[in-house]
Amino acid sequence: MTGVVSVENLSVVYDDFRALDTASVEIGAGESFGLVGESGSGKSTLLRAIAGLAPASEGAIHVLGRELRGSRREKAFYRAVQMVFQDPYGSLHPRQTIDRQLMEPLAIHGIGDGERRILKALDEVGLGSGFRFRYPHQLSGGQRQRVAIARALILEPSILLLDEPTSALDASVQAEVLNLLEQVRRDRKLTFLMVSHDLGVVTHMCDRLAVMQAGRVVERLSSADLVAGRIGEDYTRNLMVASKGFRRKTA
Ligand SMILES: Nc1ncnc2c1ncn2[C@@H]1O[C@H](COP(=O)(O)OP(=O)(O)OP(=O)(O)O)[C@@H](O)[C@H]1O
Ligand SMILES: [Mg+2]
């Protein structure tokens, strides 16, 4: 166990259904790691289990050298690890201003200097102070996702769990948000665990990836290997053929 995120033989069982089946991934500090696989293969479940949102029935999760047990997560966990979801509308409160939603994590963690931090966070994600007192419905989808990223960054985490962070966005906006994520990762030396069904996105953003099928990790490979077609499993090859984003990039 040497990674900053280490998941060993993790299973999540709902009734009799194994949503995650002895899955293991190991992510090094500063690494950007991708999870791909068909719909229902367990990608979100793996992220949710790390965040304590899905019940692990066997296996172990270590984050930053500490074992996480059960579903309880210490406050310190949320300072170190933040999650960004696909649907920024769902993850922002519709009746609270951006200011209030950025202030909330600071208040929970007893962090002062809120105004300066909020302005800095908005600036970092490319939204000026003019957005501060708006409501989510007054923003575009891309702007909402920038707010969700600002909220994830405001506690200065070292690890981001990203579940399809751009798949609800138009292609051009998607590219902008991916560039933003790549830039903050470099600037802040963050570690990413990122789910995407788009292999073009994953190979662009991630150094290595795990391929999931029916709750299991069926293959681990580098983005370079995937792009060059050095693939071990037919399942992975089929995913590549099915991924429109990937075809577009390699055509
Ligand atoms: N709370 C739950 N109760 C019962 N089954 C669940 C629950 N959450 C997920 N599952 C099941 O576990 C399996 C894996 O779901 P998961 O959301 O991890 O897939 P995914 O790989 O993220 O798929 P997608 O690409 O469509 O987002 C699915 O069959 C899903 O129906
Ligand atoms: Mg999912």
Automatic annotation (TrEMBL):
Pfam families: ABC_tran. GO terms for molecular function: ATP binding; ATP hydrolysis activity. Residues 5-239 form the ABC transporter domain. InterPro entries: AAA+_ATPase, ABC_transp_ATP-bind, ABC_transporter-like_ATP-bd, ABC_transporter-like_CS, P-loop_NTPase. It is a peripheral membrane protein. Signal peptide: none annotated. Keywords: ATP-binding, Cell inner membrane, Cell membrane, Membrane, Nucleotide-binding, Translocase, Transport. It is found in: Cell inner membrane; Membrane. GO terms for biological process: transmembrane transport. It catalyses: glutathione(out) + ATP + H2O = glutathione(in) + ADP + phosphate + H(+). GO terms for cellular component: plasma membrane. It is an enzyme of class 7 (translocase). Its EC number is 7.4.2.10. The keyword Cell membrane applies. Its main location: membrane. The complex is composed of two ATP-binding proteins (GsiA), two transmembrane proteins (GsiC and GsiD) and a solute-binding protein (GsiB). PANTHER family: GLUTATHIONE IMPORT ATP-BINDING PROTEIN GSIA, TRANSPORT ATP-BINDING PROTEIN. Part of the ABC transporter complex GsiABCD involved in glutathione import. Responsible for energy coupling to the transport system. Belongs to the ABC transporter superfamily. Glutathione importer (TC 3.A.1.5.11) family. This is Glutathione import ATP-binding protein GsiA.
